[in-house]
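Q: Predict the assembly, please.
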Amino acid sequence: MNGIEVSHLRRVFKTSVGRFRRKSKEVVAVDDVSFEVHDGELFGLLGPNGAGKTTTVKMLATLLIPSGGEARVAGLDVVKDADQIRSRIGFIFGGERGLYWRLSALDNLRYFASLYNVEPEVSAKRIPYLIEMVGLKGREKERVEGYSRGMKQRLHIARSLIHDPEILFLDEPTIGLDPVGARELRGVVRDLQDQKKTILLTTHYMFEADALCQRIAVINQGNIVAMDTPSELKKLVQDLSVIELEVFGVPDELLNKLRMLKFVDNVSVEDRDQKQALMVQTTRGAEAIPDLLPLFDGIKVGKVTSREPTLEDAYVRLVGGDKHGPE
Amino acid sequence: MARSNLRNWARTIAVTFEVTLRQNFTDAFVIFAIIFQPIIIAVIALWMLRERGGDFAIFVVVGAGMTGLWSSLLFVSGNSITEERWVGTLENLVAAPTPMPVVVFGKNLANVTQSLLSMIASYILVAWLFQLDVQVAQPLIFIASIFLMVVSFICFGLIMASLFILTPAVQNFQNGLEFPIYILCGFLFPIALLPGWTTPISYLLTPYWAARALQGAAAGTASFNEIALCWGMMLLFSLIYLAASQRLFGYVLRKARVDATIGMQ
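A: Predicted assembly structure:
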């Protein structure tokens, strides 16, 4: 059985531009997306900013009506059966929004329990359990405004589980968290996986998708460009090696020059504090280094290493080498 | 099924009521709108009306109290939807199984009930600080009128909330609705002083009938027929608002899902 079934889903946003002679403009956020998530599966939707991840999740969570296609959650249609779906799903959207900051965690959970029609005797047991599960025990009576970002994110998880839903949508749950907070939250997601919840996780952190998801769909510009298990996706780049160069201020002209080289498949750059990591995907492995270095004339180059490709490299190849920051 | 729904809704209304009050009383703007603004209006009204003589003290208490009620409904109830959208909880409310009008009913119940403090604050000011004689001639009719007023204001608030859900742009008209209602509904002076063409507008506003019933019961000048008319109009408008809001919520929530305005900041 599939907990989530998405078929040719499409969503267009209409905006208008101009002050006096307003012209309407259409933006296609989700173009043609199809996938299924099996019962009890943790499925990842991976893509850069603006790829259509959040829009897809919002359609599945009954917050947006699709412009085309079809989507079923727990066997129910997201447009016609929205009311029935709502009691069977939980969702969180990344970031600190979505909680009542002037209330305590306890009051937030009590309020959402009533909104989800959880009987008082059930919520009396479930709220302490959830607070313990997300590591907020001892702080549950404090106002949320005093919580760290990680604590708020974990409270979001508890909120989304208050009615014990069978299907969960986690939209970038670790966004903006420090490494410790993100690791703790991933631990909570693993616990949910152990409880056999059907989970759709969106993220643009490759290692997170690799570590958590059983299958991954890579989405780019509103379309699914690949869908498989993390190990199968990595095979997309098994013919390549990655030369990683530590550089300080790499100009766009150099990147273009590198992309023109015959033995270079893809080039991407990642900011790391004061420096940048330049990743060159090549079919020639470490042998390519002597041919690459002369191009860096006048640019400070630090450590140079050659390594096996990761899921991240497969992702870069699929979405065309452009890596962005958080949404 | 219907019975369990009703029980769930009653519980949600009670929890929403409590949660809304807890949040409101930590918000300085709410305290200003329901306590300080009516007091300022009451002081100005006392200076204006004392020259006129007669039994003006209770008129000031009722009138200033009603300004607090209206401001609370207009700003606190309206802003609560805006704030929900701003802090990202509106999506949670819309996507919850409890129907949105039930949640808004609980919020409005809290906002309207707390704004009765406006009348109490005005009473304390007039009776204790200004040492004026404040007496309600027909207390039972007065209390019953307050009850009906609370119900009709809550129902009116349902219409307002649905418009706030539709689009944040409604907020642009919010300020312009505060003082015209004070004037058109005769909170602080009779509508007979206004041009004749405004009277039909006043008749269409439930706060007008509430003010007329409260002022009549307080002064003891209203006949049975007069009070019955005011109560009847409040009930009629409440039913109209309730029925209209049900249709409006259905339309607005669907349109907001099409236009993607629920999560808009």
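The radius of gyration of chain B is 19 Å. Residues 50 and 168 of chain B are 42 Å apart (CA to CA).
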